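Now for our target.
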Amino acid sequence: MKNVKKTRRRDFITYGMVIAAYLVVQALLDTGHISNSLKNQLIPICVYVCMAVSLNLVVGILGDLSLGHAGFMSVGAFTGIVVSMSLQNAIPDGIVRLILAIAVGAVTAAIAGVLVGVPVLRLRGDYLAIVTLAFGEIIKNVLTNLYVGADGNGLHISFKNAMAMGMGLDGKTIINGPIGAVGVTKLATFTAGFILILVTLFITLNLINSRSGRAIKAIRDNRIAAESVGINITKYKLIAFVVSAALAGMAGALYGLNYSGLAAKKFDFNTSILVLVFVVLGGIGNIRGSIIAATVLTVLPEMLRALQDYRMLIYAVILILVMIVTNNPLLRSVTQSVVKKLKAPFVKKKDAAPAEGGDSNG
């Protein structure tokens, strides 16, 4: 019970950090103390936080390496755009369409997770990483050749060209092959991104602390021992993989509805690696660290924009230095001791031990 209470307290602190950050940013927005460039980064920050937390479920909690997370994000993004644009006349309310787009994006990404996970989750290590990388590239190329339109008769899909869709005169192209989604009505908001982070955290933390989460961590720690006590390896790996894919699909739907146009090339191998960098830099298995790393590394390039040609060089040097510090035992111990000293005034002293004979069980 003591460990359960400690875990719950840690989770509530994480929720509190996110809520406090939202209130501070919202106050700065209301008073006009945030630049336009940073305003444009608020929704991508929320998206990348959700992506980092969801990927950490696979990389940190399950212990497998996935390099195709951007593929699930792209499935959610383009599905969300199609849902939103095709229902524009039937459902004028943008909030309702945004919720539907995120929900459908999660479902389609989860289905993609099942289709990929069932045949490949028996693989491990480098083999699994290569297969997930291939999946991400396959999805990107499929979306690059996809044409989707809508008219009074419903949706029309083609892999040849826009003319092959056979739409009526009232038809409207939603996804135009290599050009991507065009003419998208932007529905994403910072508040929606904040709520999505809370939903992602709620699902992830509750899964980690559940019976299934303990089974997933047992598989990570010792696969053979977990299998010997009756844990279904494939089942629990698939649970983690599909939940992670669904959360990435939700984030992708929000991301897609933040821009008036979106091409499939945005969700390439580099995006998957970027999200993996957030996870590694924040600490593998550390959910709170993923949130902080995704936020800082998304904002940092914009903060260094004034340095023009040198900003990405400085960005890379900062990444290297942080990784050196976090992987150096001496520097890590110094950092932890400093954090403990800072937290000491806020930590309640433990109650004194009961006097001898005062315990009825003793």
In short: The domain at 2-303 is CATH 1.10.3470 (ABC transporter involved in vitamin B12 uptake, BtuC).
